Amino acid sequence: MYVKDMTINRALGPKGMSDLTNLAQNFESDVKLQFNNYHIDVKSILGLLSLNLVQGSNVTLTTRGYDDKDALNAISEYLQVTVPR
Asked: Ranges for the HPr domain (predicted)?
């Protein structure tokens, strides 16, 4: 299991949330995101959309399973890459 606290640097809209869900689904591990005392499965687009994440949100990413380190690295990189609007 890996846990990482981070700040989201990417502007996430519905497309970004969909891309994040698709990325998480490439991994066998469970991928959870905590924001404001809510814990959601990153593989669930509805869960992600319900969080109303914006650029600058502080979150905790937790991965657990066979490829948890790879999942943590890929997803945290996706969330922390700054993309121009």
From this structure: 1-85
pLDDT in tens, 12-69: 888 889 999 999 999 999 999 999 999 999 999 999 888 888 888 899 999 999 999 9
On the CB side of 40, CA atoms within 13 Å amount to 20
Residue 85 lies in a domain: no
Domain count, the chain: 1
pTM of the predicted model, to two decimals?
0.87
Q: What are phi and psi of 84, to 5 degrees?
A: -60, 145
Write down how long the chain is: 85
Residue 45: CB atoms within 10 A of its CB come to 16
Range of the domain at 54: 2-80
Strand partners, 11: none
Structure tokens at 38: 């809510």
